[in-house]
Amino acid sequence: MTTLATAPDTLTRDALTVLQPGFVGTTAPDWLLRRIGEGLSSVGLFGRNIVAPGQLAALTARLRAEREDVLVAIDEEGGDVTRLEVREGSSFPGNYALGTVDDVELTRAVARELGRRLAECGVDLNWAPSADVNSNADNPVIGVRSFGADPGLVARHTVAYVDGLQSVGVAACTKHFPGHGDTNVDSHHALPRIDVDLDTLHARELAPFRAAIAAGTKAVMSAHILLSALDPDRPATLSPQILTGLLRRELGFQGLIVTDGMEMQAISSTYGIERGSVLAIAAGADAICVGGGLADEDTVLRLRDALVNAVRTGELPEERLADAAARVRALAAWTQAHRARGVSGPGAAQQEGTAPGTEVGLVAARRALEVTAGERAHEPLTTAPYVASFTPVANFAVGDETPWGIAAELERLLPGTTTGSYGAEASVDAVLAAAGDRRVVAVVRDAHRHPWMAGALDALVAARPDTVVVEMGLNESPPRGALHIATHGAARVCGRAAAEVIAGR
Q: Across-strand partners of 469?
């Protein structure tokens, strides 16, 4: 039960303003429209809200009919993490592929085209790019979402990505501050801890964020991670030392600080989402992201009331909440001004020096391939193969609703291609029986992190040395098979690029 009167006062409007909630469905529910009318300034979109560009454009137009300056946010990284193309796979490779190519103009072109598509659909805040330095190859949640393990490479591609998005009026939200790369725990499930010294943090984790701030990123997303050298007690999202002391004062960031999803277990299981949200705003955050898992009106009202009550009891200074709300409105004004100018103009449809905008994702995916021939001579396949996909459990950020692999693309090139999916109990005998006398294409994802997968792959290659292996995660394992193709990501275009090589097209 809520405690506030229906008519929203300034305090209540400010509390609504700092929330970035989600909802269920492909049309805006009445409760969401009503709360926008009362002061809610942002809405977060997820894959469940999107079926087609036209539907998305109609949805965002309906939101803006209620409030013209509402911020519409999305978690669209391209690559493995896509919401625009959640049911078919992304037209753009992710960060790891772009970092592998290491052409900042290509990265800028990809981000610009992705941003143009978002802007055309009415989305103006993208919770991307990931600026995490993936220094731990066993990281279960970042991996191919990172440009790589080298801070300098990550920094220059983060800048290019920010430039590309913001050149078409879509605000970038550089994440996950102060760096989620050196973890072996997924913060969706527990609280990761990084125990390195300050010199390492400044030289490695913070380098891409410094570069993004210098490049003018409009927003930064905090990470639910504990960095003992900066704050031994509270995760970054709830830490005044990290958000206000480090990000605001030391690094000089004046834009919007957005939290990662507050329902993630790293926060919710210890603090709860209400107290966690109060602590985050008090620590220096300006916007509370919630809605990946909790996407209903009650969640919005609980967080609104928690913030208002914290001000009334003196736990949260009223001026801190007002400052956070003002930063949300400032970003909304920036995006509204860009939206008024439109996304057309020189360069909007053509990425100068690279490729036409609509094809730049495929161009990038092709350039990112690393192809290694085995000891046996490999000839392009001319008959339909059997694709054995060794499938790990998807992390929450990627989700399990987005297809991945190469079977669909091989079927297009080699009609009759069939496929099977194999998990941790995979039997190589079952793969061989299903394949019969057809060539086997084995598809893996982060084989170095999954002993069962590596073992199954070794056994398969031993039994069938002409097996083609496609690695669609981090390329950390030694090449195997008659042909080994590293795609550096599992986006649909990565699968298409690999299929073209296998079929000699």
A: 442, 484
Q: What is the pLDDT of residues 378-435, one digit of tens each?
A: 789 999 999 999 987 665 555 567 888 999 999 999 999 999 999 888 889 999 999 9
Q: For residue 52, how many C-alpha atoms fall within 13 Å in the half-sphere facing its CB?
A: 3
Beta bridge partners of 74: 45, 126
Q: Does residue 264 register a pLDDT over 60?
A: yes
- The structure tokens listed for 23 are 């909802």
Q: Stretch 144-164: mean pLDDT, rounded?
A: 97
Q: Which amino acid is at 113?
A: E
Neighbour count for residue 2 (Cβ, 10 Å): 13
d(CA 197, CA 405) in angstroms, rounded, equals: 39
Look up residue 185 and give its two tokens: 């725990």
Give, as one character, the DSSP assignment of residue 352: T
Q: What is the full DSSP assignment across 110-177?
A: HHHHHHHHHHHTT--EE---B------TT-SSSGGGSS-S-HHHHHHHHHHHHHHHHTTTPEEEEEEE
Lowest mean pLDDT among 202-206, 224-228, 496-500: 224-228
First-to-last alpha carbon distance for the chain, in angstroms, is 62
- b/e 282-292 (16+ beta carbons within 10 angstroms → b): bbbbbbbbbbb
Kindly tell me if the per-residue pLDDT of 346 is higher than 60.
Answer: no
Taking phi over 0 as left and psi of -120 to 50 as alpha, with beta for the rest, 170 belongs to beta
Catalytic residues: 188, 260
pLDDT at 8: 63
**Phi and psi based region of residue 179 (left: phi greater than 0; alpha: psi -120 to 50; beta: remaining):** left
CA 103 to each of CA 157, 167, 476: distance values in angstroms, whole numbers, following the listed order: 8, 18, 22
Residue the block writes with tokens 């008024």: 340
Side chain identity, residue 46: F
**45: helix, coil or strand?**
strand
CB atoms within 10 A of CB 52: 12
Q: Check if the beta carbon of residue 313 is closer than 8 Å to that of residue 46.
A: no
Residue 352: its pLDDT value, please? Answer: 36
351 falls in which pLDDT band (50, 70, 90)? very low
DSSP-assigned beta bridge partners for residue 177: 222
DSSP 229-271: TT-SSS-GGG-HIIIIIIIIIIT---SEEEPSPTTSHHHHTTT
Amino acid of residue 140: P
CA distances in angstroms from 491 to 78, 100, 113, 409, listed in the order given: 8, 15, 16, 12
Peptide linkage before 232 cis (omega within 30 of 0): no
Contacts of 433 (CB under 8 A, 6+ apart): none
What is the maximum alpha-carbon separation in the chain? Answer: 75
pLDDT digits (tens, 9 = 90+) for 472-500: 999 999 999 999 999 999 999 999 999 99
Q: Pairing state of beta strands 288-289 and 219-222?
A: unpaired
